Structure formats: structure tokens, C-alpha cells
Amino acid sequence: MNSLCGFRLSTVGIVIGWFNLIGSIFSTIVLCVAFSRLDDLVKLIQDNLDNGANAVDNVGIRTAVIITLCVYLTTSVTNVIASSLLIVGTVKERHLLLAPWLVNAYIFIFFNVLNFIYMIYVAIAKGLPVGSTLGTIIGTALSLVIQLIIWNAIYSLFKQIRANRDLQQRLLPTTSAAQYPNYTKMPPTVE
């Protein structure tokens, strides 16, 4: 792949990196705000779960919310770092800096595939009407296809930068000692 939608892969890498970076920073801020309002969030969840008849354990809800927020915050911060490295790696043409984003995106794609399979399984197992689940399944499938296309474009950029770097390394002269004469050891003079 040499281009995506008519754009060079380096342009695609920078644009995807910036979109991911801005989205990840925004989600990190939202998650930090959620941590600062943890008691209100736990109360809101407890009010939605508690219908008067069932008493819900406040400590269990609080623990579940903290664990969930920690996982999402860690994922968001990791995405900030990976997106920053994607931008820097694309600009400086360093293929290894693209690797964290590729791994991070691959993990997200893997979990989205599992989510897609689970959604289809639930729709079939519960016998839900096709009209109520079709929109969600098509939206998830479309999102997954877009993620795969973007991942493939960034992977192609990774290979392209690596190939250019290897070509540049082969074109540069080597500096081994065997190619140049050694003038520091002069032969002994005969008198």
C-alpha cells in the first residue's frame, strides 16, 4: 500500500497520530475528572442499580468503578504515548517508533473482534429481532473494517520507512579498518 484515499502514507500517519493523540488526551482528562468525582459516580450507579428492593453493596460498586477507571486511564495514557511516538516516528522516519502504535492498535482490534463476535452470539442466543440489532452489528463491523484499513496503512508506512532506512544504510560507505591503509605503523627503516 503506497497511499490511502489519495494521501501519502506519511501524511496518513501524521493525521492518524494527531487524531488519536487529541482523542486520548480528551479521554484522559474526562477519566481524571471522573476520578475526582468518584463518590458522585458511585452514587449515580447505585441509584440506577438499586430499585428499592435490592440493596447494592456500596464498597463493591466503588471497587468496580475504581478498577474500571484505572484500566481505562492506563489504556488512554498508553494511547497518548503511542500516538506521540507515531507522530515523531513518521516525521523523523524512524520505523521503530511506529511499533508501539501498531501493537496498541492491534490489541484494540483484537478486543473489538471479540466484542463483535460476542454481539452476534448474544443476538442469536437471545433471539433478538433482526431490526433491533442489525444497526449495531453493521456499525461495529464498519468500525472494525476502518480500524483494519488504518492499521494496514500504518503497517505499510512502517515497512516503507524500514526499507528506505535499509537502502540508505547500504548506500553509505562502511568505515571498517580493512578498507583504509593504516599509517600509524610504519615499517622499520633499514640503515
TrEMBL record:
Coiled coil: none annotated. It holds the Pfam family DUF4728. Keywords: Membrane, Transmembrane, Transmembrane helix. The chain crosses the membrane at residues 12-36, 64-89, 101-124, 136-158. This is Uncharacterized protein LOC131803684. It comes from Musca domestica (House fly). The gene is 101896405.
